Amino acid sequence: xxxxxxxxxxxxxxxxxxxxxxxxxxxxxxxxxxxxxxxxxxxxxxxxxxxxxxxxxxxxxxxxxxxxxxxxxxxxxxx
Length: 79
Prior knowledge:
There is one protein chain. The chain is mainly alpha-helical. It has one domain. It has four helices and no strands. The protein has helices at residues 5-24, 26-38, 55-65, 67-75. Helix 1 (5-24) packs across helix 2 and helix 2 (26-38) packs across helix 4 (67-75). The longest helix has 20 residues, at 5-24. It is elongated. InterPro entries: RNaseH-like_sf (IPR012337).
């Protein structure tokens, strides 16, 4: 299966919005940090940079690795 850039554009847009939310909200960032501390690793979210060819990949890898913590943050909004 071949994936082109237009297939990824909506996904990357949502990922950027998610990262921006957690980077701009200290409450959300603290909640994510708390959820990550319950797990094995605590990773900072990365924002992609147009001048770095692999930055989109790093964003997607970090989000994928922290997927469980994002779900917990969403399920427990007051935690």
